[in-house]
Design brief:
Radius of gyration: 27 Å
Helix content: 55-70%
Largest sheet: 2 strands, antiparallel
Order of helices and strands: HHHHHHHHEHHEHHEHHHEHHEHHHEH
Number of strands: 6
Oligomer: single chain
Shape: globular
Strand content: under 5%
Distance between the termini: 34 Å
Strand order of the largest sheet: 1-2
Structural class: mainly alpha
Length: 591
């Protein structure tokens, strides 16, 4: 056997430094910062000035007085992001300053939508820090409102200019900051910190969806996201989504400076929305505190503190890299799945509504879908805790988790609708367990996805080809799935069920999530390893089976109820998915 002499490959300076240890953080002054970042900072300062000028000039003509002396608080909250960014510029950390601008900008679109409601109908806006109406006299927008909206636009534009490398060339010290720490946090961001970010971000997002305070004032209503009118509803949803995205994006960044800056900026922006609500609940007559704004501030504040403390407790050379061993993450996902299943079953049998004034306790039906959903998730989660079965069960478990939002959205829709009909009807403990099941399902899904990613890192997929034998049954399954979730499973003369294309409401989100999960499963199954493809398709079949059981479990909610086309298409979809799974197993046997 002849031997060859191989020349060792050369490594870049960054690679050598990464092998020897993390490169010290770059110290770059204002003058060396990218011009785009400096322009963005200027826009952020101008945006903060407009956010202050709007209320000072006056948002509405003949506007009622605010419920408390809010102007000092509004000034501080508006100035905090650019002031904090300026502080980081002063200590020569422009990447952190840029992150603050980006984090603040992520929340700006939601704030813009919420404040735009003042243009449409100011009386529907519950903003005690701006005004507390005392009559139903119409209110017209004034010049200050346009300044306020322009301020949100400039804050968003500042974040866009500061995003990424802010136009910096690769050879500059600013760009080197992004290269030097690319490996320093990657493992940790994919592990524990990302799970913590998901839980914290979800907690903060849920806070925005709840009522900002309680109210006995007929002119200052305390609405949650479901009861809010158009722009307020979409603005609140945008705030919730942006908060969760900021948490995951920030904590998941491979660059510590970016992670710290984005989370700090997002926390300050969330505080600008939630802190006035907290103060209003404490200081304004006929208003009381509610948990929503506290959850919003608490979730991001805790996450930001964790990220900053982990960056400071030990020097980078001593930071331990978190192993993403798939077995350990499987156990985490399994435990979260067990908790999800238990919470779902409690939601199924717990009281959804509490009535007073001697009214008869209503019978609830939507929560009954939690029975098959909870049993499905619980069974797969227990199997996930068995080391030998974990890898095979994980794809089915991940897909089946979508049964929880399918049942949960329907349950919450029915509960919120009932409480809006009469003041004598209140939400029961079952609704809170439904919310807990939703949060746990999201956390379990992320843990399962991380376990799958770690598992694929150890598998050579370069020779993997699409399994064309699955094309026929999967195409049929995808087509049936669209009808199964898009058409009603129960039909009755006086029943108007939620839908995806019409009658879109809170329950429709569960249908939309479920059909998207099934479609994604049918899309990736042909390129998956046969055992994983089979598990993926069987999990999707279990998800569709939960939809199939809607008719026998909830038909009693309407007189003259009968099976709708969605039920028959669900049955066909389950059959197509099971056939596809058998084909996937058979293709493995032939190899």
């Amino acid at each position: 056997m002849t031997s060859r002499t191989r020349t060792p490959p050369t490594r870049s300076a960054a690679a050598v430094a990464a092998a020897d240890g993390p490169v010290p953080e770059q110290r770059i002054g204002w003058a060396e910062s990218p011009p785009r970042l400096r322009i963005g900072f200027g826009l952020a300062v101008l945006g903060a000035a407009l956010l202050i000028a709007g209320p000072v000039v006056g948002l509405l003509r003949d506007s009622p007085a605010p419920g408390f002396s809010s102007m000092p608080l509004l000034v501080v909250l508006a100035l905090l992001p650019p002031l904090v960014a300026a502080g980081f510029f002063a200590v020569r950390k422009p990447v952190v300053a840029a992150g603050v601008l980006v984090g603040s900008a992520l929340i700006a679109p939601g704030r813009l939508l919420v404040d735009t409601q003042l243009l449409v109908d100011p009386l529907l806006v519950s903003r005690p820090e701006l005004m507390v109406p005392t009559s139903l006299a119409p209110l017209a927008p004034a010049a200050g409102l346009w300044l306020l909206l322009a301020g949100h636009v400039l804050v968003g534009a500042a974040g866009l200019l500061a995003a990424g490398r802010a136009g910096a060339e690769s050879a500059t010290g600013y760009a080197a900051e992004f290269d030097d720490h690319s490996d320093d946090r990657s493992a940790r961001a994919r592990g524990t910190s990302l799970l913590v970010a998901l839980i914290a971000g979800t907690t903060a997002a849920v806070g925005f969806l709840l009522s900002p305070f309680t109210s006995t004032d007929a002119y200052q209503l305390a609405r949650n996201v479901v009861d809010n009118p158009g722009l307020l509803r979409y603005g609140t949803l945008a705030l919730a989504v942006a908060t969760a995205v900021a948490a995951v994006f920030g904590a998941g960044s491979a660059r510590p400076s970016v992670a710290r800056g984005v989370l700090l900026g997002a926390t300050l922006a969330v505080a600008a929305v939630a802190v006035p609500q907290i103060v209003a609940g404490l200081a304004v007559d006929r208003l009381g505190s509610a948990p929503g704004p506290y959850l919003a501030v608490f979730g991001l504040t805790v996450l930001t503190a964790i990220v900053w403390l982990f960056g400071r407790l030990a020097p980078p050379a001593e930071q331990a890299e978190v192993s993403l061993e798939s077995g350990r993450v499987h156990r985490v996902a399994g435990v979260l799945g067990v908790l999800t299943g238990v919470a779902a079953l409690v939601a199924a049998f717990g009281a959804q509504l509490v009535v007073t004034d001697g009214l008869e306790q209503p019978v609830t039906y939507s929560n009954r879908l939690f029975i098959p959903a909870g049993l499905l998730v619980l069974a797969l989660a227990v199997a996930l805790l068995v080391p030998r079965a974990a890898s095979s069960v994980r794809p089915a478990f991940t897909v089946a988790l979508a049964a929880v939002p399918l049942a949960g959205a329907s349950t919450l829709d029915a509960a919120f609708t009932a409480t809006g009909v009469s003041a004598a009807v209140r939400i029961g403990a079952g609704v809170w367990f439904a919310c807990a099941a939703l949060v746990l399902a999201i956390a379990a899904a992320v843990a399962a996805a991380l376990a799958g990613g770690a598992e694929r890192d150890d598998v050579d997929l370069t020779e993997r080809r699409a399994n064309l034998a699955l094309s026929g049954p999967l195409a049929a399954a995808a087509l049936f799935a669209v009808g199964a979730f898009g058409l009603p499973a129960v039909k009755a003369p006086e029943l108007v069920p939620p839908g995806i294309w019409s009658e879109f409401r809170l329950a429709s989100w569960g249908l939309l999530i479920a059909v998207l999960v099934v479609l994604v499963a049918t899309a990736i199954a042909p390129v998956s390893r046969p055992p994983r493809a089979a598990a993926l398709l069987l999990g999707a079949a279990g998800l569709v089976a939960v939809r199939l059981l809607e008719y026998p479990l909830t038909a009693g909610r309407a007189e003259g109820a009968g099976p709708g086309p969605g039920m028959w298409l669900s049955l066909a979809c389950v059959a197509a998915l099971v056939v596809s799974a058998l084909v996937a197993v058979g293709s493995r046997a032939r190899r």
